[in-house]
Every structure is written in structure tokens, then in C-alpha cells.
Amino acid sequence: MLKALDLNQVMVIDIETVPQYPSFQDVPPHFQELWEQKTHYQRNQDQTAEEFYEKAGIMAEFGKIICISMGIFSVQGKSSALRIKSIFGHDEKEMLLQFSALLSKQMPTLMFCAHNGKEFDFPYLCRRLLVNGIEIPVQLQLSGKKPWEINHIDTMELWKFGDYKHFTSLNLLAAILDIPTPKDDINGAQVRQVYYEEKNLDRIVTYCQKDVITTAQVLLKFKGMDIIPAENITIVS
């Protein structure tokens, strides 16, 4: 399937998320109770709901999206290029409206590619679109579809080769496939701190864009193609 895949019909995406509130104390009381219930079996025995709240960003019910980075391939013969665009900000609804408007200009058959996208990025986007009262774009409408009818690409799923117990991080996969990656000054676990404490959204956007570039390079490896040289990667505003 990947050999015949037309990269010009693929959009590589990555999202960055944070808890909806800076701290557990800022969460409305009703949602504090719901958070305690939701995380009861996930917390360590001696860990309070407040201590666990730093992980709220990974749950769409308690988190929000602050950055969506997208990569579009341009392939002509043996020459490949990648253009990166990011939508980011503090107003999640405005961001998602921009994202939806962008997708409305794309072909309905556009395929998304993300690392662990089927378990995180794709469903998270759909849930937050619904919460914000925005119609889910046709490219993300997965409800009622059989697994083989969903043509989105998940590089982590590709690496599993049917082994559903196996988890491999994007950084590890890039390393073993000999894909050069710039040294990141943050990781996913630090995004909340950088957003709420350092108030440095630009730093998070750069991190998100790097993940899109790395995911795109991993996909090329799966297709047996050369990775895209740095000079053929463009970040557009």
C-alpha cells in the first residue's frame, strides 16, 4: 500500500495540548470532581487528583489544543520537498476554525499522517472540534467507518507490524532509522510548564514543527525513499 501511496495527497500533522486550566485549583469544582473520578484508577495509590492534574492535557475532556502543525509534501520524480504551516494560539476555538477552513480547501480524500495519530491526534482533534461546536471536516469524519475504510496513516502503527502491544516513541524510531533530528530543548512532558509558567508558545510551536518533519521523514523511510534534505524544508507563516 505504501509503495503506491501518493505523497501529494498526504498531510503530516502533530498537535500540542495542555490542561485547560493552569492548575487544579483553577478548575471549577464540578470538573474537579469529574477529574478525580476519571483518573481514579490511573493515579498511584498515594497520588492526589491535584498532583495528577499536570497530565490533564492528554485527555480531550480536560485539555485543549494550543498548536496544530501541518506538513505538505511536494514530490516531483525523485525530488521531494516539505512545506510546514502551524496554527497556534490561546483561543482554541479560533484555531480550530482556521484549521477547518484550511481543510475545506483540500481534497476530501486527503490522508493524514501522524505518529500515534489514531490513538491521540485524530480523535483528540475530533473531540475538541465537537466541544467547540465546530463541524468535523470531512477528512476527519471516521464515525461508522470500518477500520479498513480509514485511510489515515499512523507511523507508530506501521512500525508495530501487527504487534499491538508494542509502543515506540517518534524519537526512538527516528534514531533507529538513522534520521537526523535537531536536538530538542523540550519534550512532550514539558509543554504544560513551558506554556503556563514560561509563557513561551513560540518554543512549543518549534517543537511541534520538528515532530512533523521527523514524522514525514519516517514515512519516507517506510516508502523506501530518501529523506528530504534540510534545504528542501520550508516553514511558512
Automatic annotation (TrEMBL):
Q: Give the UniProt keywords, A-Z.
A: Exonuclease, Hydrolase, Nuclease
Instruction: Say which domain of life the source belongs to.
Output: Bacteria
The record's annotation in Gene3D superfamilies points to: Ribonuclease H-like superfamily/Ribonuclease H (3.30.420.10)
Q: Does the keyword Amino-acid biosynthesis apply?
A: no
Is Metal-binding found in the keyword set?
Answer: no
Q: Which Pfam families match?
A: DNA_pol_B_exo2
Which segments constitute the Predicted 3'-5' exonuclease PolB-like domain?
Answer: 62-225
One GO molecular function term of this record is: exonuclease activity
Q: What is this protein called?
A: 3'-5' exonuclease
The organism of origin for this protein: Pedobacter ginsenosidimutans
